[in-house]
Amino acid sequence: MCGIVGAVSQRNIVPILIEGLKRLEYRGYDSCGVAVHQDGGLRRARSTSRVAELQAQAEQDGIQAGTGIAHTRWATHGAPAVHNAHPHFSAGPGADVAATGRIALVHNGIIENHDELRAELKARGYVFVSQTDTEVIAHLIDQHYSGDLLDAVQQALPRLKGAYAVAVFCRDEPHRVVAAREGSPLVLGVGQEENFVASDAMALAGVTDQIVYLEEGDVVDLQLGRYWISQLDTRTGRYGTVQREVKTVHAHSGAAELGPYRHYMQKEIFEQPVAIANTLDAVTGISPELFGDGAWRIFKEVDSVLILACGTSYYSGSTAKYWLESIAKIPTSVEIASEYRYRDSVPNPRTLVVTISQSGETADTIAALKHARAQGMNHTLTICNVATSAMVRECALAYITRAGAEIGVASTKAFTTQLVGLFLLTLALAQTRGHLSEADEARHLKDLRHLPVAVQAVLALEPQVIAWSEEFARKENALFLGRGLHYPIALEGALKLKEISYIHAEAYPAGELKHGPLALVTAEMPVVTVAPNDALLEKLKSNMQEVRARGGQLYVFADGDTAIESETGLHVIRMPEHYGVLSPILHVVPLQLLAYHTACARGTDVDKPRNLAKSVTVE
Ligand code: F6R
After folding, report:
1. Which part of the chain is the SIS domain (predicted)?
2. Is the pLDDT of residue 26 over 80?
3. Which residue ranges does the chain devote to CATH 3.60.20.10?
């Protein structure tokens, strides 16, 4: 999603800004831009193409300076078009901002009261040239400007409702950038006689490793060789200094080599054995303290679990519900974060609130967490892939998955490592509640440790999956079936297929077929079936017969010992081994490969599927 980079330095910072944008590209965007303070005025370049094209444009136009801001935009208000791309300029009432400008601004997030502010600013004579909510912020700051940019920003911000991270500079103050955050992530990068701001430390990799994670409501004034962070004191209505810790962060550059792979998604699917092994690296035994100090006391106190997440992370939570209820015997509900935050629910202070997130910055999940806390549920834990993220900072307890940077928009290795973290949580809660014998603990740990090898064996099925994907590439619809623990895996398989191949895919618990979706089954409808050799296998086989009797084409991922054989209308890929309760972690892998190869066969932009962003930092 949107990305911000800004800098104040004595050297030319345009290459740093462009490189920063390149590092944020994986988040997804549909336009980009850069603005600098040059020759006493504002200059900018904007593009609806890739950052590389913006770079060429900036070089051709001779854009270079020591102060500037840059942005990748994922359109929310206003189409992806050059006039809507950031940075936006303001130049006072009635001014032609395209020709000149006083304030330059980039913004991540959504301003909810932009209509009201736009009407007010128009009445004052401000001319709007975009359909964005962002442009109102530039004009609002301009309206308050009387020689001190920080003062103008501090006066403007309390008028904004919604979520934002902004970076601003002014024609009249050449060596200054002011930035602020409320609801969207922003970091400050501290250099030698130069300072930087970015929406992610990764954007500053190689520039500085001295990072301050700005907190909600922080406003930072960046100048050459100094910075100052302030917060509004709502009692006095004045801004006061706040101290924030400077951390040494060895951020990953994000420019991981593709090696022998065609796409990051394929690379990440194949990294799963290592990602799982890394996630288990520090686990020598099961104990609540794996989740942080004080976990034992909290686990003892809770009598239920509430999981909050979005998308793929929601499906890992949905899988974990089966584990938590059957192994730890603890009542568990799983809620889509964007729904939970707006519905009336019955809070139980003895609930363990678990958020799941790859990025740790998903706005809906963070808001749902805050909603749960506001209702008195203070026992919070996150399963997250980014140790420095807002989610980890907001939760009392955490388990950090060690999937490594996930660049492909479609989540793969983050999902399987989340499942590992959630299984460990299940075992730790089971232990605290007296439902885990030493023998069980040893058996589960042995199975967990063998997982990387087991996943590797599943990855060897790739050639067989490729053969299927050529048929899938010609379809426009697909159904996915699973039962029990594997129903969320069917959901995840359908999500993967639709988001990267654009084939309409739906998943059902197989027993639901006859209650409606069977009407869709024809010879044209591929029905992907997840068939582990578990207690529901015979029921599943009956559901498969219902499909075959109607001429449907079944594509079954069956465990080795299921005795399901290929025949007309029934295609089988045999999974190497049945893996008991951890089977979902194996069964999702061929579904990832099926989506990936089908998308390749259809020629879509696999790593950056249309309309999607990696880190969804707006509501
Ligand atoms: C799908 C996918 C998304 C994310 C969702 C939540 O492949 O990646 O559905 O799972 O946007 O993101 P995180 O896990 O970062 O909170």
Report:
1. 295-435, 468-609
2. no
3. 3-248
264-458 under CATH 2.60.40.10, yes or no: no
Secondary structure letter of residue 58 according to DSSP? H
SS3 content of the chain, % helix, strand, coil (to 5): 40, 25, 35
Q: Where are the alpha helices (DSSP H) in 460-582?
A: 462-472, 487-501, 537-548
On average, the pLDDT of the chain sits at 93
Q: Looking at domain 462-602, does it have CATH number 3.90.380.10?
A: no
Answer whether 311 contacts ligand 1 (Cβ < 6 A): yes
Q: Is the pLDDT of residue 260 over 90?
A: no
* SS3 state at 12: coil
Six-digit token string for 293: 């100090």
Q: What distance in angstroms lies between residue 358's CA and the mean position of ligand 1's atoms?
A: 7
- Among the listed residues 2, 32, 310, 384, the single catalytic one is 2
Judged against a pLDDT cut of 60, whether residue 255 lies above it is answered with: no
Q: CATH assignment of 3-248?
A: 3.60.20.10
Three-state SS sequence of 325-359: HHCCCCCEEEEEHHHHCCCCCCCCCCEEEEEEECC
pTM: 0.81
pLDDT score for 99:
63
pLDDT at 98: 58
CATH 3.40.50.10490 domain position(s) in the chain:
264-458, 462-602
In Å, how far are 45, 494, 597 from 311, measured between CA atoms? 35, 11, 21
Indicate if 247 belongs to the active site.
no
pLDDT at 80 over 90: no
Residue 500 near ligand 1, beta carbon < 6 Å? no
- Is any atom of ligand 1 closer than 6 Å to the C-beta of 279? no
- Band the pLDDT of 494: cuts 50, 70, 90: very high
Model pLDDT, residue 256: 62
pLDDT beyond 70 at 183: yes
